Each structure stands twice: as C-alpha cells, then as structure tokens.
Amino acid sequence: MGKASYVSNKNKQLSSLFGDSVRSKIVTILLDGKEIKSSEINKKVNLFGEEYGISIIQEHITNLKNNGFITQRREGRQIYSRINSSGNIFLRNFCELMKAPNAKKGGSEIKMRKTTSQWINEVQSAINMITKHKLGEKFTSTQIRERVNIESQRLFQILGTMIERGMIGKVEGRRGLYFVKAKLS
User: Fold this and answer.
1) Is pLDDT above 90 for 158?
2) Which domains occur in the chain, in start order?
3) pLDDT tens readout for residues 99-131
4) CA nearest neighbour of 184 among 137, 133, 117, 131
5) Buried b (16+ CB within 10 A) or exposed e, 96-121
6) What are the pLDDT digits (tens) for 20-75?
7) By CB neighbour count within 10 A (0-12 exposed, 13-18 middle, 19+ buried), where does 162 fall?
8) How far apart are alpha carbons 58 and 177 in whole angstroms?
C-alpha cells in the first residue's frame, strides 16, 4: 500500500457523517477492505486534521477488535488490521460501497431484485400517472419505461401478466400500445 499524504473527500464525508470521532476515522480508513499496518493507521488518522496520540488510536483499535468489527494478525513486529466483513453483511456492503468509484455502480448492479407483484405495483402506478386513472385510455410501453427503471423484456412479462388478470388490454394490430381495461388501484 502506497503512503498516502491526503484524505479523500469520500473518507472525510463518511467520517464527518459519524461525528469526526477517532473511531469513525479508523473505520473509514479500514473500509477499503485492505489490510493496514498499525503505524499506517496512526498516520492516516492524523491526516484528517486533528492530531491524536498513538495510545488513543490503539485503544480504539483494540476496542473495535474486541467487539468483532476488525481482525488483526501479527507478522514479526508489525500488526495488520482489516475490517471484519466475513460474518457481517452490513460491513461487507459498506466496504463494497467505499470501493465503488465515485460511490456509483453500474445500473445493473444497483437494481434490486423485485417480485412480480412489486413490479406490477410499480408499473400500475406509472400507468395511472400516464392515463390519469381513465378507463380506455391508451399508453405505450415506452411511456412506462420513461417512468420505471425496468428492462424491456421484464416489462413485457409484467404487461402480459396484467393482461391475463384483466387489468389492461392490448390494442389489436398496434405493437406496444395498451389500454386501461379495469380501474387500477
């Protein structure tokens, strides 16, 4: 690990979110998921702007270790620490978030899996916005996709299910054109 002489904005913001305490600074440093020497942690904590003594920093590291938030290993005279994300999904997800460039991931990685009924509710809500709750009002799949972040193939599956349930109808001979068949709640 290279010697850093600055603290990233992402790390400053996270530390600030948790009160700029010594502990929040230590956790922020360890959230990148890498193993770090104790001496490096001491240096990096002090890069945040306030000077802390080694004993205070080590006391917080020991406390984090005793509570299972970090793991340590010794190699000769050096002690290496890392965040304990193996058994804690919250910490694992937090580490992934901190690794993400610009705190963003690709669209497909962000999407959460939704059930069919959740998708139907979301699509139904979009249809209501488009048609203003009017029976017989027409809408297109493109209009729905402008309002709902859904893949086209999944949208057509959901629309097919809604047709089977009698919620909407498909305009004959017009591809991608639908109409409200029943009052959507």
Assistant:
1) yes
2) 9-105 (1.10.10.10), 116-180 (1.10.10.10)
3) 765 544 444 444 557 888 889 988 988 898 888
4) 133
5) eebeeeeeeeeeeeeeeeeeeeebbe
6) 678 888 888 888 778 888 888 888 888 877 888 888 888 988 988 888 888 888 88
7) buried
8) 65
Tokens matching residue 154: 């999944």
Percentage of the chain lying above the pLDDT 70 cut: 79
| Angle in degrees, 0-180, between the axes of helices 54-66 and 38-46, rounded to the nearest 10 | 120
Long-range contacts of residues 44-53, Cβ cutoff 8 Å, at least 24 apart? 44/4, 44/7, 47/4, 47/5, 47/6, 47/7, 48/7, 48/12, 48/15, 48/20, 50/20, 52/22
Query: What are the structure tokens assigned to 118, written together?
Result: 């959740």
The rounded percent of the chain whose pLDDT value lies above 90 is 12
Are 41 and 26 a contacting pair, CB within 8 Å?
yes
